[in-house]
């Protein structure tokens, strides 16, 4: 991760920690607040108004988009991937790689603070579900067959993310 992206990530995290919803990622360097991220809670009706039906199905109902359908899958530009629900900066382009699964895949998030995990049993075997730490929107799952340095594959739904190019 280069310095610029690291600073950008921290800036976005700072906004998140302050609980400011709806602000686009600013360039002002807010200090990293201690004590984690303030949650955003909305009713189902509010989420339905905010999200497309496809985004709602993934983020709020933990559905999985069809493989090879997301334009973000094969995107490798420099930038930052944000939560499509609350705009929190969550994954840097530096950790994105081609897992050949048909879903955008990363070996690490911007920081461990921006994600949460739980175990789900939608399939027969347990899986590690990963979601946004701020709005709890479902992103995808974490598997242990990823590349170094983490060995993790964060297999995410493109519908759960928005991409902001570094040049923008
Ligand atoms: Zn979110």
Shape: globular
**How many distinct helices?**
3
Tell me which CATH architecture applies here: Beta Complex
Helix content: 10-25%
* Biggest sheet, spatial arrangement of strands: 3-4-8-7-6-5
Assigned CATH class: Mainly Beta
Oligomer: single chain
- Rounded to an integer, what's the Rg over CA atoms? 15 Å
Distance between the termini: 18 Å
The H/E string reads HHHEEEEEEEEE
Please provide the count of β strands: 9
Helix-and-strand structural type: alpha+beta
Key phrases:
6-stranded antiparallel β-sheet; 168 residues; 17% helix; 3 helices; 3-stranded antiparallel β-sheet; binds zinc ion; Metal Binding Protein, Guanine Nucleotide Exchange Factor, Chain A; disordered N terminus
Q: What's the structural blueprint in terms of helices and strands?
A:
Elements lengths: L2 H15 L26 H7 L2 H7 L19 E5 L5 E4 L3 E2 L7 E2 L8 E6 L6 E6 L5 E6 L9 E4 L4 E5 L3
Antiparallel strand pairs: 1-2, 1-9, 3-4, 4-8, 5-6, 6-7, 7-8
The structure holds zinc ion.
Zinc ion binds next to loops.
Tell me about this structure.
The protein is an alpha+beta fold and 168 residues long. It has a single domain, classed as Peptide methionine sulfoxide reductase (Metal Binding Protein, Guanine Nucleotide Exchange Factor, Chain A). Helix content is 17%, strand content 24%. It has 3 helices and 9 strands. It has a 6-stranded antiparallel sheet with strand order 3-4-8-7-6-5, with no helix packed on it. A 3-stranded antiparallel sheet has the order 2-1-9, covered by helices on one side. β5 and β6 form a beta hairpin. The longest helix is centred in the first third of the chain and has 15 residues. It starts with a helix and ends with a strand. 37% of the residues are buried. It binds zinc ion. The site of zinc ion has 8 residues, from loops. Zinc ion binds next to loops.
